Amino acid sequence: MLRASNLREHDMTSPGDLELNRRDLMVAAAATAAVASAPSGAGAQPAAAAAVRAPSKATVSMMVNGEARRLVDLDTRTTLLDALRESLQMPGTKKGCDHGQCGACTVIVDGRRINSCLSLAVMHEGESVTTIEGLGTPDNLHAMQAAFVKHDGYQCGYCTPGQICSAVAVLDEIKAGVPSHVTADLTAASYDPTADEIRERMSGNICRCGAYSNIVDAMSEVAGRRA
Amino acid sequence: MKAFSFSRASTPAEAAASAQRIEGAKFVAGGTNLLDLMKLEIETPTHLIDVSKLKLDTIEATAEGGLRIGAMVRNTDLAADARVRKDYALLSRALLAGASGQLRNKATTAGNLLQRTRCPYFYDTNQPCNKRSPGSGCSAIGGFTRMLGVVGVSDACIATNPSDMAIAMRALDAVVETVSPEGATRAIPIAELHRLPGDTPHIETVLTPGELITAVTLPKPVGGKHVYRKVRDRASYAFALISVGAIVQPDGSGRVAVGGVAPKPWRVEAAEKEMVRGAKAVTDGLFAGANPTHENAFKLTLVQRTLDAVLTEARG
């Protein structure tokens, strides 16, 4: 720790002076790891400003598709998307743009659809995540999955898991009375799942194959069935 | 993404104190903007303080007849709140015009106010940018400027504030409540929250290091017809070229704030006094001293015509 604090001091004087040997780096890494286990303690000054920062690890517990899952030694940088795909080996959720622009990574967390690429796994401690794998199975499709098949709501299929997770949550949002940009009367008690409403609410899910009209058909059918 | 350590705050004051104590720390709430910027290494916090679980996620009536919106209230919940829809429709409309359903489900009230610009040169780490790297220069000036600012800009930065919500908050005279690392609270009128760039475009708000937004309050409803019109390159899920948020009273007076044109929500109280005389009179006042480029001068005309349409709709 003494070496680490010397390093910090040195570090603050001038980054240009910084000459690290391998041993100094290892000591700095150990200090950072210690910080991670007691982040609000007095030693929480990260030894970091140098080019190399040691990864910080955490443990996260969450429900995934109804099962309790525990992720240990998880790099704090891990997004929910990467935790699902890489750590939990559930590749159903897709990585498209990885910047919240395409919607391929959409999952449902505590009943709400979110972009799993723009969310850190460590921020979902104790929460409940539903992915495409949790909606239905090949033998027992969710109504929305069956409707996508029936109406040909995909071509290459890459955006489809995100489209379906989003579609399921959109119908729940309409049911719950959440208005949208195209809702004419904000004070109405309920909204019809019209094609315009579906298109607007699904705008965060991009389909490069252009299956949009078939997706609207699939969602309209499920919405009609529910009503 | 650069490595960072992570902690969860248990109270707002503790979060603020930690943020000041830990060099390079940042708050994270929805994370929809911050994570994007961290992946690009535009933001490189050494430590993240998770404030999303602080009990700041309720909307309560104030003694003055207004609303106090917790800093962690999600954009979806704020837009859907029955009181907001009825008395502050401009706010609902502005929120619903922004981002996507997925993003609104995560993004918070405070985070929305503090989101960074969408200037393409700020995002391109190969280019100089005074906001990202103070003193390095501005690549936008002389570059592609169609999306960029026309008023309130400086020789150091012509970036715009991309928030839709903030336009409505500005027109509604919202007040931002904060707590400092020392535990002191203060109230900042929304008009004073964002700074103009001048020669320090990297300093975007008047918040001091560690200061945490805890709530946004709205004064009692002002009535009138609320209209938010956003003009963009596609009909949904795109940032504004320009947007106009207006509250128009039966006598033709009202308020107007404009987005997509300036480094902060753009409202000029003296200009909106001209509302009874029509869109041109208001727009002339809004853009007095404007400094557009040849690529974005169209925004001045576009605001005038959009405001004209908004006034027609409001009086219809």
UniProtKB/TrEMBL annotation, chain A:
GO molecular-function term, one example from the UniProt record: metal ion binding
Presence of keyword Zinc-finger: no
Domain of life of the organism encoding this protein: Bacteria
Listed GO CC annotations: periplasmic space
Gene3D superfamilies: 3.10.20.30, [2Fe-2S]-binding domain
Record note on quaternary structure: Heterotrimer composed of PaoA, PaoB and PaoC.
Protein name according to UniProt: Aldehyde oxidoreductase iron-sulfur-binding subunit PaoA
Species of origin: Methylopila turkensis
UniProtKB/TrEMBL annotation, chain B:
One Pfam match: FAD_binding_5
A molecular function (GO) term: oxidoreductase activity
UniProt domain FAD-binding PCMH-type: residue ranges: 1-223
Key words of the record: FAD, Flavoprotein
SUPFAM superfamilies: CO dehydrogenase flavoprotein C-terminal domain-like, FAD-binding/transporter-associated domain-like
Protein's UniProt name: Xanthine dehydrogenase
Lineage: Bacteria, Pseudomonadati, Pseudomonadota, Alphaproteobacteria, Hyphomicrobiales
